[in-house]
Amino acid sequence: MRNRFFPAILVAAISAVAVAPAQAALTSQQIRDQLISIYRSMGYTVAIGEEVDNAGTITLDSLTMSREIPQSGATISVSYDKITLSPNGDAVEMTISPNINFSVDIPAERPGRKDVSVAAHMVTTDFRAMFSGDVSNIKAEVSLAKAIFTLDDVLSAGQKMPATASLVAHDSSGTYQLGLPDGGGRTIDGDATLGNVVFSIGIDEPGGKGYVKASGSLAGLQQSFSVSTPDLSKYDMNDPTAVITMIKDGLSVSGSLALGKMAVQVDSLVRNKTSNVAVTSDSGNFGISLSRDRVSYGIAENGVRIRIASQQLPIPEIKVGYDQLALNFDLPLAQASAPSDFSVSVALRNLAVDDAVWSMFDPGGMLVHDPATLAVALSGKLLVLTDLLDPEKVAQMGGPPWIPTAINLNELTASALGAILTGKGSFKVDMSSGKTINGLPLPVGAVDLDLKGAYGLIDSLASMGLLKDKQAMGFKGMLGAFAKPVGEDHVTSRIEVTQEGEITANGQRLK
User: Fold this and answer.
1) Of the residues 189, 280, 321, 460, which has the maximum number of CB atoms within 10 A of its CB?
2) CA triplet 385, 438, 511: central angle to 5 degrees?
3) What confidence tens digit (pLDDT) does each residue in 337-363 have?
């Protein structure tokens, strides 16, 4: 998200100095030359209106970078009024003129579609980048007091569309370390922060009264990342499969993003009916790591509250909230003779709706309206059967690319309507036994389950007519057969898979 507020030219400048020949100190000429060559190697056309070198201070006037995206035929362009590179002791300082222009031209893909052109600009306040050190170990310190992004025009087949958009970001700063390891690659490590962000978007119905308007704010962002690349000059950046080859050759990326409080509001008028949606969240976080050996991913939203009011709803408004929605996984990619660690988890915690919603489904108040939770967390060992970075080999498998050799159920929580199910357990797979379940190697182990409130829920559903008496009796009979009572409306069960292939519940054979 930070790159939306820092000019793209900075990214190229950081990359540029990382490929320059080693010498004692950085120079403006080094950054200028490598910056231009880097962009041209990536398929950009670089045009400079006027260039002046005055005693080591280089000024680039009317610099424009444009590139066609091969897959879509779209053309993107970024223009700077002025970029100045000047020596500052043993460092190089980069400043830019306040105004930066952007354009995107998207041709019609097939008959019936229309060409689309987008123009926008950004005004920056007090942008400054300072590069120090030498070309083998560079420290870059970047700051930006304020950036205002404004959408100027959206044209469809030459006709202006009634759309507006703006974004204002405050207090961006970052510190980055760049290195040149042996072998022609590079490393980039960085930490960045962003202060307040506010945005607004508006779309009006052409020739009508309808509209959609959105606005929002974000109270801060923190980012950390680390990148290690092979020699990028060996790859065709226009080839969408090049990244797979780069990962095989040693590309690794890791990063994390932490978001502060966020609020978004959307108002609309569609078919003469108004709607309003308001969403807030206390915090959010995102993380990713990718290398030729492993991939991991994590995302979470915390303290989310949603309010929907619409003339199209049967009730005045709907309120929904949850404490957390999260997804995490860490998986091996490299084919190996020995199993590797893995973990996967998903959670929706304390999902709650207001009484107005409950009144539509449970007007008599027969059900328990407590917040609902669903959470599952697994870990263990996986055996990777093929090279997961080779799409052709994966497609030829005709089955899963992994086989679990050990599975731990670290958490199972399912609670709703007054009932709560929890569980933990572990299984190990004996690959040499030759025994299988549904074609997969036999897992040996057990899971312990604990269930509270199930009988009460069955009775409530039967009283509401959602379960027939025979169905209710059948569910209760199953609980009685395979679970052990340990308290009032409280049962437990141990599900076990033995080395002989038997499946039992509390010692009673199921299979």
Assistant:
1) 460
2) 140
3) 899 999 999 999 999 999 888 988 888
